[in-house]
Amino acid sequence: MLEFDTVPAERRPAEERAALLADPGFGRVFTDHMVTIRYAEGKGWYDARLEPFGPLSLSPATAALHYSQELFEGLKAYALPDGEVGLFRPQANARRLNTTAERLAMPQLPEELFLRAVWTLVEADREWVPTGEGQSLYLRPFMIATDPFLGVRPSSEYLFVVIASPSGSYFAGGAKPVTVWVSQDYSRAAPGGTGAVKAAANYAVSLRAQAQAQEAGCDQTVFLDAVEHRWIEESGSMNLFFVYERDGAPLLVTPPLNGSILPGVTRDSVLTLARHRGWGVEERPYSLEEWRSDAISGALRETFACGTGVVITSIGTARSRDGEFLIGGAAEGPVTSSIRDAIVGIQRGLAEDPFGWSLRRA
Ligand SMILES: *Cc1c(COP(=O)(O)O)cnc(C)c1O
Fold first, then answer.
1. Which domain of life is it from (predicted)?
2. Residue of 262, 243, 240, 239 lying closest to 251 (CA atoms)
3. Of 207, 262, 312, best ligand 1 pocket probe by most atoms within 8 Å of the beta carbon
4. 345 FRET partner, CA 20 to 30 A, in 28, 148, 155, 201?
5. Helix (H, G, I), strand (E, B), or coil: what is residue 227?
């Protein structure tokens, strides 16, 4: 078994940490340590370390910098009521990392090593797991191709890193419904492409659309399918759910995993919870036209987006070049709140966890 060597960091004083944890925002404060593991073809994974958080030293020829052979994951650690720390479904992230690695011709990372890397960092920086309302320790594992070589081919060497960032809720303002921009100019992902995996490059190609969304006064972008520009796929970093009512119970509609939609762990959790509650669930193509006309007629009750960062956020308004429409009077609906409460309750160890989603260190 690959053991971690420890190079202890100089820990920041408690007062400095407390000041940073009071209002960490998202993704801008980092803990004292990071984990790194190297890979070389023919040798496998080696040189696992827990070391001080700090700059990486890379050749300017490093393959990842030129051709985006780079992947990432995102998951959260939560302070539990008994003082322990829980990770939310980390095995799902380990599996998805390997699906992404395969698509990007990168090496597989054993699930066991992924989990130990994450736990090693969480335990070393235990005091950085915030305890405030809506707060968590966001964990960002990523892998980059490190061959110092400009030829286009899969790298033979890689670096896997985990960093951690104490975070408040992703959108400042909390549960306020957001306004989304439906992008008709840009696609995020195409059939046969990389939309279904967590390739860093997917985000680079979505940034122009996100800038347009912001110019239009919107918080987030919604992407349509790349072929017909008609079917709703997902938001830039979140999966989407459309809430109807059928036979007096909620009915959740979400686009199917068609190869260009990212299979979110939160998406899967929402589907599992909804089925557990006996609600209707449909994974089927859902068009912009259907969204618009059902929102206007009132048949559509709610729309929400979900992902690790935000957990669940209500969508109140959808805007595009053709105008805008409101969903459910642009107020958060009861199904959205109830799903959020259930997932957050499990994450924080405050609710029963019938699915075994909150993991403690064995
Ligand atoms: C990560 C991600 C999501 C959400 O996945 P979670 O596992 O729920 O965090 C959704 N869409 C895209 C494009 C993503 O990269």
1. Bacteria
2. 243
3. 262
4. 28
5. coil
pLDDT band at 172 (very low <50, low <70, confident <90, very high): very low
3-class state of residue 362 by DSSP: coil
Nearest CA to ligand 1 atom 12: 237
- pLDDT of residue 137 exceeding 70, the answer is yes
> What tens digit of pLDDT does each residue of 35-80 get?
999 999 999 999 999 999 999 999 999 999 999 999 999 999 999 9
Give me the residue spans of the domains in the chain.
4-167, 178-347
| Mean pLDDT, range 132-152, rounded to an integer | 97
Determine how many CB atoms are found less than 10 A away from the CB of residue 1: 7
Tell me the CATH architecture of domain 4-167. 2-Layer Sandwich (3.30)
Question: Ligand 1, from 139, 207, 238: best to mutate by most atoms within 8 Å of Cβ?
Answer: 238
Name the residue with the closest Cα to ligand 1, atom 5: 264
Statement: residue 174 has pLDDT above 60: no
Backbone φ and ψ for 78, nearest 5 degrees, come out as: -120, 140
Distance CA 26, CA 135 (A): 10
> Which phi and psi (to 5°) does residue 206 adopt?
-100, -5
Q: Report which residue type is found at 282.
A: E
